[in-house]
Amino acid sequence: MRMRAQEESGSPRPAVALGVSGSIAAYKSVELASRLTQAGVDVHVLMTGNATRLVAPLTFMTVSRFPVTVDLWEIDNWRPQHVALAELVDLLLVAPATANFLGKLAGGIADDALSTFALSFDGPVMVAPAMNPRMWAHPAVRDNCRRLAERGVRFVGPEPGRVACGDLEEAGRMSEPPVILRAVSAALRVLGEKVSESPRRRILVTAGPTVEPLDPVRFVGNRSSGRMGYAVAECAVAAGHEVTLISGPAQLPRPAGCRFIPVNTAEEMARATREQFANADLLVMAAAVADYRPAATSPQKIKKEGSPEQMLRLVETEDILRSLAAGKRQSQVIVGFAAETENLAANALAKLRRKKLDWLVANDVSRTDVGFASQDNEATLYGADGSCRELARADKQALAARILARVLRGKPKPLNP
Ligand code: CTP
Fold first, then answer.
1. Whether the CB of 105 sits within 6 Å of ligand 1
2. What is the pTM of this model?
3. pLDDT computed for residue 30 by the predictor
4. In this prediction, what percent of the chain has a pLDDT beyond 70?
5. I want to staple 96 with a disulfide (CB 3.0 to 4.6 A). Which of 25, 131, 197, 282 is the partner?
6. Which of 246, 265, 351 to mutate to test the pocket of ligand 1 (most atoms within 8 A of CB)?
7. Residue nearest to atom 8 of ligand 1 (CA)
8. What is d(CA 9, CA 2) in angstroms, rounded to the nearest whole number?
9. Quick check: 269 pLDDT over 80?
């Protein structure tokens, strides 16, 4: 794989083959190609003949700055282009993937450049289907998708919403480019960090802030964006695990391919996490759960006449991590997060022991360049075995992949059980 060659050469550019088959959603793939290129990825586009009736190869060539492969008989020196490409790219993304393309891939049919490339490529394959919802629901398509998923092909979408034939409630519409891009970048991170894909684990992730209502218009909250937890969920999905994401209100697109449980308050998060924990192998508690909530929530807007002290009477919330780690626990591995503004190492280690965690990711939230509400993070991963690993500054998905790579290797042996 090219990523391996890169590691040796020190070159940082990952490469993706973008397969475009004949759905009108092909116009959105131009944005995908453009955004991937801008993100520093080499994008090699392969189009089916039908796709070229909808978007010109020249458009993709201009945004990706690489030749576009359409013809099976295009020969690069002595090798066909689709074979040469298979050794050059890290991942194949087919977006849009039509019912016809999925059927050909499931059946091992290779009758054009894209389908032939797909069989000659042995790296990870991701598809973003797009078709009429009745086609998506057809037993033949369902059967093909099941076979592809069993072979490790990752699906992004489709989603309900507007398709060329109208506004529909059933799934068929291709996922939006930002959602596909997050899935692709997570897959590249997972490859780069060699995150373990087997055995397939059930991973429970919590993310975002909780909001504790005072009345119908006011709440006590915090500045967590949810990005770190979402990045963990995206990378866990990319590595093929079964992921449930419990999220407080975050302004982020839902990661593709996971079960999503939205919550608002700490109490709702505690209930949902407890319910899901029994069926999980790994809990990553990245949520910034409120430590306190208003003692009472007024059903009406609180008037100014009352006393402010009365308005902000707070009571403690349940410490979700602590009660899950101390309660009846099977073999689950538990990862906590520690947001600190001072004495990072001492506070983090004390928290790891106090909450009986297996791992703790500690970061300094007093900094504005990393951490809360930032794209990047820098952290230290402490283990119950006394291990300590610095996770150098990187975007949150890269950090998430590093955390998963480590914690999926197994449970650390506690120093003082
Ligand atoms: N946490 C939790 N339930 C709470 C509060 C926090 O499960 N009610 C979890 C967070 O999701 C995080 C970890 O505990 O994984 C540590 O959160 P943090 O706010 O850093 O620590 P606290 O336990 O709240 O301690 P302190 O605020 O005193 O540092």
1. no
2. 0.91
3. 98
4. 93
5. 25
6. 351
7. 319
8. 10
9. yes
Alpha helix stretches (DSSP H) within 240-360 = 266-277, 308-311, 320-326, 344-354
Cα of 211 from ligand 1 centre, angstroms: 15
* Ligand 1 centroid, distance to 290 Cα (angstroms): 8
| Helices 26-38, 177-193: inter-axial angle, 10-degree rounding | 50
Amino acid identity for residue 217 in this structure: V
Residue 88, C-beta contacts closer than 8 angstroms, at least 6 positions apart: 2, 15, 44
220 Ramachandran zone, left/alpha/beta (phi>0; psi -120 to 50): beta
Specify the residue for token string 């992004």: 156
In residues, how long is the chain? 417
Residue of 289, 347, 353 best suited for mutating to test ligand 1, as the one with most atoms within 8 Å of CB:
289
* Ligand 1 atom index nearest CA of 206: 11
Strand locations in 114-225 (E): 125-129, 154-155, 159-163, 166-173, 202-207, 212-213, 219-220
Known active-site residue 165: yes
Q: Which atom of ligand 1 is nearest to the CA of 335?
A: 15
- Ligand 1 center–CA 244 separation, angstroms: 20
Q: Is the pLDDT of residue 201 over 80?
A: yes
The reported pLDDT for the residue numbered 29 is 98
Does the beta carbon of 364 sit less than 6 angstroms from any atom of ligand 1?
no
In eight-state DSSP terms, residue 366 is T
CA distance 360 to 340: 12
Locate the ligand 1 atom nearest the alpha carbon of residue 360 and give its number: 15
| pLDDT at residue 73, rounded to an integer | 78
pLDDT at 5: 44
Pairing of strands 75-76, 79-80: antiparallel
151-193 pLDDT per residue, tens = 999 999 999 887 777 667 788 999 999 999 999 999 999 999 9
Residue 203: pLDDT band (50, 70, 90) is: very high
Residues whose CB falls within 8 Å of the CB of residue 146, separated by 6 or more in sequence, listed in order: none
Q: Which of 165, 235, 258, 388 is catalytic?
A: 165
Mean pLDDT of the chain: 91
Locate 214 and state its tokens.
């005072």
Give CA–CA dist 23/114, Å, rounded. Answer: 14
User: Confidence class of residue 100 from pLDDT cuts 50, 70 and 90?
Assistant: very high
Residue 370 in contact with ligand 1 by CB distance below 6 A: no
- CA dist 398 and 384 (Å) reads 23
CB 55 within 8 A of CB 20: yes
pLDDT of residue 12: 64
